[in-house]
């Protein structure tokens, strides 16, 4: 009974709401196609830029429901991407922002929030990563083969 009285007097935080994105921190960019640091991630805008890709990472294009005609450029640890048969991807996620250079995103939800990718579905959310990105003969970053997600 004493515990109950103490709890009534203190302001307890409400339980977390599941499957809801946290609002970005104060002062962050929330524009579709840009990361929270305000850097452009649209393939059409950065296709000719030199992008540092750490060893073991690949550039992939994410499809945003709010930008149907654009791909967002992402750097993802290739161990978390499927092979050509849609298999052998490790569970989890590891990614970096190619816009501002922020590294070490361990959750796709956190990463998608940072790149302002508005997710409409929770299950299989990494399926928003749609295409491998490759450099063509002219050195321009272009849409490559489709990422084969199974299941």
Automatic annotation (TrEMBL):
Positions of the GREB1 N-terminal domain: 2-151
Classification via InterPro entries: GREB1, GREB1_N
Pfam family, any one: GREB1_N
Protein's name according to its UniProt entry: GREB1 protein
Species in which this protein is naturally found: Erpornis zantholeuca
Name of the gene encoding the protein in the UniProt record: Greb1
